[in-house]
Amino acid sequence: MNSVTVYTTTQCPYCVMLKNFLSEQNIPFNEVNVETQPEVMQRLVKTTGQMGVPQTEVNGQWIVGFDPNNIMIALRNGGKINE
């Protein structure tokens, strides 16, 4: 079973595009709005080195930005995009 978490903010158009893409592909995901949870944003920056959103965690693999291709690759490869 794939685990997909999308980290977003309220005003982010790419976050909406990413959530729409996942929904269209029937990929279940959890959404975490980092505006309402600043401690989560700090953890993201520490983990990925990136401040921007969306950031998507697929089975432990981080994908930064609106990147449907790498998300689909990570889903197919159990979280690994560098295969």
TrEMBL record:
InterPro entries: Glutaredoxin (IPR002109), Grx-like_ET (IPR051548), Thioredoxin-like_sf (IPR036249). SUPFAM superfamilies: Thioredoxin-like. Transmembrane segments: none annotated. Residues 4-63 form the Glutaredoxin domain. GO terms for biological process: cell redox homeostasis. Gene3D superfamilies: Glutaredoxin. PROSITE patterns: GLUTAREDOXIN_2 (PS51354). One of its GO terms (molecular function) is electron transfer activity. It comes from the Bacteria. This is Glutaredoxin family protein. It comes from Psychrobacillus soli.
